[in-house]
Amino acid sequence: MKALRALRGLSTLSTLTQKTHVCSIPLYRFYASEPQQQNPIDTAEDSDDVPAFDSNDYTLPTRGFDSDAKRPKQPTWDEAYRTRADQKIFGIEPQKQSSQVVVQDEEERRATLLAKALLHAALEKPDDVEEEDMVVKEEDQRSLSVGIIGAPNAGKSALTNFMVGTKVAAVSRKTNTTIQEVLGVMTKGVTQICFFDTPGLMLKSSGYPYKTDMNVRVESAWSSVDLYDVLIVIFDVHRHLSKPDKRVIKLIKHLGAQAHPKQKRVLCMNKVDLVEVKKDLLKVGEEFGDLPGYERYFMISGLKGSGVKDLTQYLMGQAFKRPWDEDPITLTEDVMKNISLEVVREKMLHHIHQEIPYTLDHRLMDWKELRDGSLRIEQHFITNKQSQRKIIVGKNGSKIGRIGMEANEELRSIFKRQVHLILQVRVT
Ligand SMILES: Nc1nc2c(ncn2[C@@H]2O[C@H](COP(=O)(O)OP(=O)(O)OP(=O)(O)O)[C@@H](O)[C@H]2O)c(=O)[nH]1
């Protein structure tokens, strides 16, 4: 092992793990299990030690996996009276008790079958595949590490999400939403592909990478670029057509004409769905088609999926005979923590339109798997300005409430279990 482990060492994922470790500061009044003295929404604007959002204060629709989900309502009337009324008013002869039981059993059986089918579908295990066939021996395993690099907003996260099939990286209309590398894993047959969604690597106008301030993470991404088996360089072809994108030219120049000897480089012209005159794509194809150092180029829409199948097939073909790095089904706790941060961050970016999200410290403070299988996740947004806190919390807690509800709902559907999400906005 493993190029990938070495790569991880370099990647910001490890920084994330350190950054998001469960903090041991006393979180006295944050615990939702304590009786709420006041409605948190009433106080959310003024006090920062009461949870700004606690999913326990909201009624979220229950789902199939909810252990507390109520069974279908039983009749509240007395069956004997109902039978007599049916007989007298509608002339319906009473049914034998035993057949009612049979009908109920049949319904339960069907519900069980449906639940099983849904579980099967969720695990993407085709019906005709036996359990033994799902286990791939280590000596048969093939794997590939893929880095995706491009200017901010080029569509790296959307492409990763589409290929991996679950929402692992925040997708947003704003730039630089990817604050750290998010590992996405796609396992098909004997092949496993690990995707690394790099932060929007930026270049100064001089064509050199930034070296200062928040760009420590960017530096880390630059230094790990050569370690991937395949490097996907992606750019927004729609944007490039309306106004040639100098950042793309600079990025390509910076990477050089020669790929690392152990690496294959491909170019992805993304967002083709936005290009109305398809002939225009030929122009870009001509401009970038023969770039030295690039093995292939693909015209894709990472969001809508066109061309992604070809890209996936190409990547599958590049995989090496090498043991997998990740369990194909179980999400590791670190990945889940990462997903929880990404989902909340994405919702925040969607609802807060000011620039503050980039100056905000966003931390995972507590992660607990409770006895009933549910997850308790507590995250804090930390700012040094009271005014920023007010914007994030919103009037009567409306903003943070929306963010929290949407994130909670999405996390429940990703993790397939109940999630108790607590969001806190603190001023330091
Ligand atoms: N129409 C269309 N929109 C896309 C496509 N790919 C991405 N987008 C949109 O472009 C915006 C940016 O996409 P992201 O995937 O977040 O871009 P990114 O490169 O990861 O951005 P950073 O994290 O800032 O580096 C989002 O609004 C996406 O929905 C595409 O193929 N077609």
Automatic annotation (TrEMBL):
Where do the segments described as G2 lie? 176-180
* Listed GO biological process terms: ribosomal small subunit assembly
Q: Which residues form the KH type-2 domain?
A: 352-428
Q: What segment(s) does the record annotate as region Disordered?
A: 38-77
Residues of the region (G1) are 150-157
Extract the Pfam families matched here: KH_2 (PF07650), MMR_HSR1 (PF01926)
Region annotation (G5) ranges:
300-302
- Domain named Era-type G: residues: 142-323
Query: Where is region (G4) located?
Result: 270-273
* UniProt GO MF annotations: GTP binding; ribosomal small subunit binding; rRNA binding
Family, per entry: Belongs to the TRAFAC class TrmE-Era-EngA-EngB-Septin-like GTPase superfamily. Era GTPase family.
Q: What is this protein called?
A: GTP-binding protein ERG
Taxonomy of origin reads:
Eukaryota, Viridiplantae, Streptophyta, Embryophyta, Tracheophyta
